[in-house]
Amino acid sequence: MSGIERKPVYTPADVAGHDYASQLGAPGAYPFTRGIHPTMYRGRLWTMRQFAGFGTAEDTNERYKFLLEHGQTGLSVAFDFPTLMGYDSDHPRAEGEVGKCGVAISSLADMEDLFRGIRSTRCRPR
Predict the structure, then answer these.
(1) Which range marks the domain in which residue 108 is found?
(2) What is the value of pTM for the model shown?
(3) What pLDDT digit, counting tens, does each position of 2-32 carry?
């Protein structure tokens, strides 16, 4: 766009007096100042996420599957206020707030229901 030529990857030779390994590092390597992917985002696009969650874990699971089927590449969980505050759904302070503006999670079983049938792409063997 600007007409300025760029190298695919810059190295220590491009910056005098700079400790490349500890201050910058290679793309995809610690300290990850140049991104988590070796090819930056040329080889893998940014993750498109939908912040979603409502009602029960089962309801939200259906929504997540819908979003993934329609092109989302990542999910961000919106928890309801009782969950965010550390209350179970049956706690008196949770009354009237359960599942209103996020998904209600009170147990490990709820989290399992939330992600049932949704496979993580990060767990895929390469």
Answers:
(1) 49-123
(2) 0.61
(3) 889 888 888 778 877 877 777 777 888 888 8
